[in-house]
Amino acid sequence: MLNAVPYSLRQLVFLVGGCVVLGVGAGMLLTAELGSDGYSTLVNGISLWTGTSFWIANVLVGTVFVAMAAARHVRPGPGTVVQVVLVGVTVSGVLALLDRPDGLTMRLLLLAAAFPVVAVGIVVYLGSDTGAGPAEAAALAWDPPVPFRWSYSAVQGGGALVGWLLGAKVGLGTLAVILLLGLAVDLTSRLLGLDVHQAEDPAGPKDTAA
Length: 210
What we know:
mainly alpha
């Protein structure tokens, strides 16, 4: 009977724990008010451009990203849904508890502190191998041939650019996410000994041609 359980207790703990940590880090990043991540910037831009609410735009963008990843055989899983829901709930809780620090120096310190928290959260939840959230799935879909540390930066950068063109605001925090978060996740993955790659769809391997 135990062999029939699709995921182990360790995987579920890593998934839930990683998503909570990621939500805390994302909440810290948003509280600093120096610009959100590129994916959120894209969602916000689409929300502004279409006149829809943020959560509706988030569902639409997330669905497209997950479908694109699935087309390259990065299959969704329970972690795909849990990540979106649990991170969102955690972020809301953090934003309700934290106030924006006074002064630019304190905001920069909060931004810097958020990075290792976000990186650990991403690595731990992806290390559960239960499915990736939209932004991470889109990046993993191109690894190989592009290493995750660079494909993730490309996803975040592309999202930020499109979101900005549609009217969303960007800032120093957005630029930091684009340039540094992929590298931070890669380093954290090595330090923790966790693989962020997900089990591939048995329909076939990703095209590794350049």
